[in-house]
Amino acid sequence: MTQALYRTNFSDFDEFINWYPEESEYHYELHNGVVTQMPKPRGQHSQIAGFLIAELSLKIRHLGLPYFIPKKCIVKTDNLSGYEPDVIVVNRDFIRNEPPWEKESTLINRLVAL
């Protein structure tokens, strides 16, 4: 079950990041400036996320790829939206171009064609 926490809009994604609680039993997503409270993975959802992390980590290591799976991060999809994914694979080479990564564990969603 999801629950909108605020009806008033944040002015931008940075305001959401400054508001985001460090220790919470919930994840929070920002959609068009409105914060939505999301439950953290539990039960089967948590089991599947853990399985994916383990399998992806093994494959990344086996292939020697420059990727990692952060424990926590927030993905900025546009100036008024962002979310905390259950699992995400990040290219270490691209993280150098993400200034907010070291301070906020924030990634800006960009499509990359290889």
Task: Describe what this molecule looks like in 3D.
This protein is an alpha+beta fold and 114 residues long. The chain has one domain (3-108). It has helices at residues 13-19, 43-63, 92-95, 101-104, and strands spanning 3-4, 26-31, 34-39, 67-68, 74-78, 81-83, 90-91, 106-108. A three-stranded antiparallel β-sheet has the order 1-3-2, with no helix packed on it. Strands 6-5-8 form a three-stranded mixed β-sheet. A two-stranded antiparallel ribbon has the order 4-7. β2 and β3 (34-39) form a beta hairpin. The longest helix has 21 residues, at 43-63. The model has no long low-confidence stretch (mean pLDDT 83).
Give the key terms.
114 residues; alpha+beta; three-stranded antiparallel beta sheet; three-stranded mixed beta sheet
Record the SSE blueprint.
Layout: E1 3-4, H1 13-19, E2 26-31, E3 34-39, H2 43-63, E4 67-68, E5 74-78, E6 81-83, E7 90-91, H3 92-95, H4 101-104, E8 106-108
Parallel strand pairs: 5-8
Antiparallel strand pairs: 1-3, 2-3, 4-7, 5-6
- Shape from CA axes? flat
Tell me the span between the first and last alpha carbons.
Answer: 37 Å
Order of helices and strands: EHEEHEEEEHHE
How many structural domains in the coordinates? 1
Number of helices: 4
The proportion of strand residues reads 25-35%
Structural class: alpha+beta
Q: What's the number of extended β-strand segments?
A: 8
Give the low-pLDDT segments.
Answer: none
* Spatial ordering of strands, largest sheet: 1-3-2
Mean pLDDT: 83
| Main sheet summary | 3 strands, antiparallel
Radius of gyration: 15 Å
User: Residue share in helices?
Assistant: 25-40%
